[in-house]
Structure formats: structure tokens, C-alpha cells
């Protein structure tokens, strides 16, 4: 059975750490499988970028991976997984705290939807400190984020902060 993996997240904005996980997860899914990068549209949070903007951002940045598609979802990841035939959930972890949190979530997912295994991919050491919130904070103060996120994202960040968001 081909792999259908999902890598869920808020991606607000996309970082080089996210792109590294996507690259590696794409290889895990293989040429016969697919990886869905799933943008969480959480109405309880106030993201900098809309779900559509984040989807567009990711679609442009993942174009080089033929087995990667980008979608968005709201609600439970397990419902999205069931609806899309997902059999592998990819989670990136940067630290032991991330692992502790993600392992609890994986147990919950397993209880709600037994059709998928969760795989934890450790962050590349270059990106272990990196988060979307760090990128937003530094960019919001006109700091240099060129080592954190691609140039296309930097342009979108500048535009958002110019708009006063």
C-alpha cells in the first residue's frame, strides 16, 4: 500500500525548519506515495497570515517535490486523516519538550483514528531553535530573518508588517 502521509501545522509563516521536515517526509512517502502538507485553520487563534495565504506560500515553496500537495483543514487532524486516507502522520520535534507534547498528542490521535502511525522527525540542528513565532517576532522588529525563512516569505512578512498587522 502506498504511503499517504500528512505533515500538519500552522506554518505561520513557513520556516526553513518546516521545509527541511517537508523534504525529508517527502522522501519517506516515496515516489509512489504522497505527502499532504496540511495547514491548520484554527479559528481560535489569530494568525498573521490567512489559511489561504499560508497554503499559497507552501504551494510555491514545495513545487519542487512532485509527491507533495498542500491543503488546509479545521477541526480534528484525525478527521482530516480519515477523509484523505492518511496512514502516516509526520511531526517535527525540536526538543525533548516538543517530543513530550507530541507523544501525548500521538496517543490521542491513535485512540481517535487507528489508521495512521505517527513518526517523529527530529529537527536538523541548524533549525532546532527555529519557530514561526520567533520569525514573526524578529521580522516584526525589522530584524534579519534571511537565515530563518525563504526570501518569498520575507517579502510577505514585510508586506504584513507594513500593513500594520
Q: Topology as H/E string?
A: EHEHEHEHEHH
Question: What ranges have pLDDT less than 50 throughout 5 or more consecutive residues?
Answer: none
SSE class: alpha/beta
Major sheet summary line? 5 strands, parallel
The helical percent reads: 40-55%
Name the beta content range: 15-25%
Give a description of the structure.
With 165 residues, the chain is of the alpha/beta class. Helices cover 42% and strands 19% of the residues. The chain has six helices and five strands; from the N terminus they run βαβαβαβαβαα. The chain has helices at 16-29, 51-61, 77-83, 96-112, 132-140, 151-162; strands spanning 4-9, 34-40, 68-73, 88-93, 117-122. The protein has a five-stranded parallel β-sheet, with helices on both faces. It starts with a strand and ends with a helix.
Key structural traits:
165 residues; alpha/beta; globular
SSE topology sketch:
Layout: E1 4-9, H1 16-29, E2 34-40, H2 51-61, E3 68-73, H3 77-83, E4 88-93, H4 96-112, E5 117-122, H5 132-140, H6 151-162
Amino acid at each position: 500500500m502506498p504511503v499517504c502521509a500528512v505533515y500538519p501545522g500552522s506554518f505561520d509563516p513557513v520556516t526553513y525548519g518546516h521545509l527541511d521536515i517537508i523534504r525529508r517526509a517527502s522522501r519517506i512517502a516515496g515516489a509512489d506515495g504522497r505527502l499532504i502538507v496540511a495547514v491548520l485553520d484554527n479559528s481560535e487563534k489569530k494568525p498573521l497570515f490567512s489559511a489561504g495565504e499560508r497554503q499559497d506560500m507552501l504551494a510555491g515553496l514545495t513545487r519542487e517535490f512532485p509527491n507533495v500537495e498542500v491543503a488546509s483543514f479545521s477541526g480534528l487532524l484525525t478527521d482530516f486523516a480519515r477523509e484523505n486516507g492518511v496512514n502516516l502522520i509526520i511531526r517535527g520535534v525540536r526538543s525533548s519538550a516538543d517530543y513530550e507534547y507530541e507523544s501525548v498528542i500521538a496517543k490521542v490521535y491513535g485512540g481517535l483514528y487507528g489508521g495512521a502511525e505517527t513518526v517523529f522527525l527530529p529537527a536538523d540542528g541548524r533549525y532546532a531553535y527555529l519557530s514561526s513565532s520567533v520569525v514573526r517576532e524578529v521580522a516584526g522588529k525589522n530584524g534579519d530573518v534571511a537565515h530563518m525563512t525563504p526570501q518569498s516569505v520575507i517579502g510577505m512578512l514585510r508586506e504584513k508588517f507594513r500593513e500594520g498587522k
